[in-house]
Amino acid sequence: MGSSPALAALVLALLPSPAFADPDDYVAPAAREVEPARPLAVMVLQPRVASSIELGRILFPSGGGGILGTLIIDGQNNIPERLAASALARAEERIVPLVAVLEDFDVASLAKEATMAAMAETSWLGASPPELYAPARPAGAAEDDGPVYVSTTYREGMVGRESNDTEAGAAWAADVAAAQAAFRAAHADAPELAQVLWRYQMSPDFTQVQVIADVSLSRQGTGFYNQQLISIVRLNRPSFIEEENVARWADNDGALVQAALASAFARAGEVLPSIMALDQAGFTEATDRRRESVTSAGYHGPVLLRDETGPVFWARDGDQGLAAFVTVQVAAE
Asked: Measured between alpha carbons, how far is 93 from 64 in angstroms, rounded to an integer?
């Protein structure tokens, strides 16, 4: 069964407009301080920890036909979309124990604290305190949640946008668009706005807790800066069996997964100032592939900095739509 026209229209509507298509990866020093200070939103819009999936971009159905056959069959049967939905359904079954142990865990406060920690070193980012946008959820609401999916990889296929987005992903994107519109409306007279959009998810194999921060600045409705940080806490010596990894995270009423989330958010607050401090020359130098590089948690790239917690490095993968700074820690069991 194919996707509905309404879902397709929603996904297309949520694609970046030309005005937001190509913001810079750095903020020029002359553009940092503004008066009045930018209103700053901290957004944590997912109702609970998200699942993630990993699919290949090019599929060759068993009936043969190569790339042409793939295009024809995909166009008729929405194969990538159906595979994504099936993979997400399996991930949602596995994540249930983690949803349970995180039901009362206050992730929104962690996100706000991490943002304020970054602001302490980067006061030009926006006005303090930041405004928190997070859904209010009654007790027991986790049992009523549908699938939660906040990943944005594999957006572009060999002939354009692929159809492997999920309905859950489109729903999350709609929530983001609505919150951003509300923030803009609340500050219609502000010359510039700042936003930190936070996401948190388990990796597809449940070996990692991943916290993603998207920092963006806009001027009169046009985005001029966007940068992403992926803060990861991984299991030491994980299993190849997803359910065994889930059991480790969820053991002892979720002590490990809760500590990992706290560490991932705190680490993001520590390293975001070093990322936002980069000007054009600094960003070019930091992302130069001839620099010292590191491979960790499935990511690879040149090192921006290294401290007692570990390296912070730049990872880029055009096939996955990845362009982000990454920091990795090992879970302390």
From this structure: 32
Residue 205's φ and ψ, nearest 5 degrees, are -95, 5
Which of the 8 DSSP states describes residue 24? Answer: B
DSSP-assigned letters across all residues of 63-99: T--HHHHHHHHHHHH-HHHHHHHHHHHHHHHHTHHHH
Q: What is the pLDDT of residues 243-272, one digit of tens each?
A: 999 999 999 999 999 999 999 999 999 999
Residue range 87-108, pLDDT digits in tens: 899 999 999 999 999 999 999 9
User: Tokens at residue 221, please?
Assistant: 């409705």
The answer to whether residues 44 and 198 touch, using CB atoms and an 8 Å cutoff, is yes
CB-based contact 114:265 (threshold 8 Å):
yes
3-state secondary structure at position 288 = coil
**CA distance linking residue 46 with residue 173, whole number of Å:** 10
Query: What is the Cα Rg of the chain in Å?
Result: 20
- The pTM score is 0.86
Q: Select from 148, 91, 165 the least CA-distant residue to 321.
A: 165
74 vs 88: CA distance, rounded Å: 19
At 34 the three-state DSSP class reads coil
Q: What residue type is assigned to position 5 of the chain?
A: P
326 within 8 A of 230, measured Cβ to Cβ? yes
